[in-house]
Amino acid sequence: MCGAAVYQYEHFDPVFAEACEHSADGITLLCGSHHDEKTRGLISIDTIRHAAAKPRALSDGFAKGSFYLEGPPKVTLASWTFINTQSIVRAFDTDILAVKPPEFDGGPFRISGIFEDRAQNRLLEIIENEWRGDSKIYDITTEANKICIRRKPREIALLLEVHPPRAIIVARFEMFFRGAHIEGNQTRLTVRTPGGQEFQSQGGGEVDTAMIGFAIGPNEIGVGTCARGVYLEKAVAIPERRGAGRPNPAAANDP
Ligand SMILES: [Zn+2]
User: Fold this and answer.
1) CA distances from 81 to 49, 88, 113, 129 (A)
2) How far apart (Å, rounded) are the C-alpha atoms in residues 234 and 89?
3) Interval between CA 56 and ligand 1 midpoint (Å)
4) Which of 96, 105, 163, 249 has its CA 20 to 30 A from that of 126?
5) pTM for the predicted model, two decimal places
């Protein structure tokens, strides 16, 4: 009814207590709040039936949910973990994944992000802790603490796990942004510039208290950039060939 991606099953026809068998037609998905209103008799069965025939998530084009973060949040992208890092991925001076500090004392940390696929379809957008997943093109499921977006039945485009109050794990993902490309799974993380430079990590990494996690420029990639623009971890500038994956010590010293 409201397009919430976190839902419960509602047996509206027949009601659960009278159900001898589960008929798929008589079951719909309701968020906890609407489910409670239905149970209290504040929403009629007819209204539920009409809503089930025309799911809000489909007419809106997205299913939505919220993150509840206390800090400092720890965001894991594939095998890389970012603690106390505001811009986790920045491409050409635009944050594509960021966690901002609370606006007021005791307020929540605020995560925002854009996950687009190669064809510039927006898989998932996070605006200040509210996430929206494209339900027109993709299949979105939320099970327990996981959000999974599939392109096809067996093809996962994005898998995100929430471990409140601090951690979000983006276990599998791909992000494209104006020619920059970053993708990863549990074992591998790859960052590419539009110019073809590439940073590859097979193991994990950790960036703690940095301004920027991955900074992607037209022709360079910085990892763990602090306030003065010094690369704390490593920086790579591999001309031409992709996949060499070796940090370039010269680039590491170049602010
Ligand atoms: Zn609802």
Assistant:
1) 45, 9, 16, 19
2) 15
3) 9
4) 105
5) 0.80
